[in-house]
Design brief:
Layout: H1 2-29, E1 37-39, E2 45-47, E3 55-61, H2 68-86, E4 93-99, H3 107-116, E5 125-128, H4 135-148, E6 153-154, E7 162-163, E8 166-170, E9 176-181, H5 188-199
Parallel strand pairs: 3-4, 4-5
Antiparallel strand pairs: 1-2, 3-8, 6-7, 8-9
Helix pairs in contact: 2-5
Length: about 200
């Protein structure tokens, strides 16, 4: 009987270990397709494979979000200030905020969202959306990005999206490096340390 328990326990352990290994390997090999192009807060095109000189911290939001999204953005503003003091923001790392609600979050709406947080309209923190006149194709491109990073979201029909609560650090080639909790669980120091560690 003990032998059966031992075999079952070993099988369970191996199953869990295999599952963990699968997710680690999957995350480590994930890379945002370099040909995906969205538009930024100014209506200009942004292609993920164009700039291969910087790390990217990627945040997914929608501007009607009542809690997690704005809390994360505010914490990223504070993180940005610390990275500027270190002299690496804009040189070694940039921030990318991508809306999961491109129909409502037009470039104009994203610009207002930025201003609400005191974020300057410059090239080192871009806010991305899709072209409203071609929204179905843009949503497919957005899905490619979220699927790559295993970020899940759904609109239950009331305009209040249910979504995964992670931000993502990717390398110069848009490959997954690490993920961090959003909202109140976004630990600025942990994210800062990981970014500096990757840079140095």
């Amino acid at each position: 009987m003990k032998k059966i328990y031992l075999i079952c326990g070993l099988a369970l352990f191996l199953g869990i270990a295999a599952g963990i290994s699968f997710f680690l390997i999957r995350d480590a090999s994930a890379a945002i397709p370099s040909n995906i192009t969205l538009i930024n807060q100014n209506g200009d095109s942004y292609t993920f494979g164009k700039d291969q000189t910087k790390l990217k911290l990627i945040e997914f939001i929608y501007t009607h979000c009542p809690d997690v999204c704005p809390t994360t953005t505010q914490k990223m503003v504070s993180l940005k200030n610390e990275l500027e003091k270190k002299g690496v923001f804009g040189k070694k790392i940039e921030f990318i905020t991508i809306t999961i609600d491109p129909y409502r979050d037009t470039p104009e709406v994203l610009s207002r969202y930025m201003k609400g947080f005191g974020i300057e309209n410059e090239n080192h923190w871009v806010f991305l959306t899709g072209k409203k006149e071609n929204i179905r194709a843009e949503q497919k491109k957005l899905k490619e990005i979220t699927d790559t990073l295993q970020f899940q979201f759904k609109d239950p029909g009331n305009g209040q999206f249910v979504h995964t609560t992670f931000t993502y650090l990717v390398d110069k080639n848009n490959r997954f490096v690490a993920k961090f909790p959003m909202g109140n669980d976004f630990n600025q120091q942990d994210v800062y340390n990981k970014i500096i560690d990757k840079i140095e």
